[in-house]
Amino acid sequence: MDGERYGPPRPGPAPGGLSSAGARRVQEALAARGFAYRVVELDTPVRTAAEAARAVGCEVGRIAKCLVFRAEGSGRPVLVVASGAHRVDEARLAAALGEPVTRADPDFVREATGFGIGGVPPLGHATALEALVDEALLEHETIWAAAGHPNALFRLDPRDLPALTGGRVVALR
Q1: Where in the chain are the domains?
Q2: Of 159, 164, 141, whose CA–CA distance to 29 is shortest?
Q3: Is 154:18 a contact under the CB 8 Å cutoff?
Q4: Which pLDDT score is estimated for 173?
Q5: CA nearest 141: which of 163, 159, 162?
Q6: Domain 15-170, CATH among 3.90.79.10, 3.50.50.60, 3.90.960.10, 3.30.450.20
Q7: Which of 16, 101, 126, 164 is the most buried (most CB within 10 A)?
Q8: What is the C-alpha separation between 50 and 65, in angstroms, rounded?
Q9: Given the DSSP bridges, would you call strands 130-134 and 63-71 parallel, antiparallel or unpaired?
Q10: Chain segment 88-104, per-residue pLDDT in tens
Q11: Residues β-bridged to residue 155
């Protein structure tokens, strides 16, 4: 079964064994929303979907990459939770939002989410974000998502993504 290759969480000085403040924040956000998913920290960073898939022993399509876009007209941040195996079709995304979008730069991502690129999770952000979930993720029984730090992930049921993100499921490829 996937997920068994990562080993135990890396011990750390913080309660629950999570050494990263971002990972602790995601664990707390999960608990606050009533989810029992467990954040794990790896010994090495997994900044890409391919790196994460190798680390946990699953196919790249089961990695939920969290991307932030800027809606061009309103300037608002938009979270897209997409399958690691697919590129987001920006025309479809724009159609779903009703305005064109551009990829957000690292400063905009950090300001909107409170997390750096490579560790953006689907929840626990600094500001409320409109969220869209790629329907391709729902093809899987379990998936993995970033958990607030490049070394942190958590495994989840993709059907929980709308509740976790406050978002809606759309076709994005």
Answers
A1: 15-170
A2: 164
A3: no
A4: 87
A5: 159
A6: 3.90.960.10
A7: 164
A8: 10
A9: unpaired
A10: 999 999 999 999 999 99
A11: 144
Q: Which two tokens stand for residue 20?
A: 């990263």
E-assigned strands of 21-167? 39-41, 63-71, 77-83, 101-103, 130-134, 143-146, 152-156
pLDDT value at residue 62: 98
List pLDDT tens digits, range 37-53: 999 999 999 989 999 99
Q: Is the pLDDT of residue 9 over 50?
A: no
Joined tokens for residue 116 = 């750096």
The single residue listed with the structure tokens 């994460």 is 52
Tokens encoding 49: 């979907």
The β-bridge relationship of strands 101-103 and 143-146 is: unpaired
Each residue's pLDDT tens digit, 33-90 = 999 999 999 999 998 999 999 999 999 999 999 999 999 999 999 999 999 999 999 9
Q: d(Cα 70, Cα 57) in Å, to the nearest integer?
A: 32
Element (H, E) at 19: none
> Which residue type is seen at 121?
P
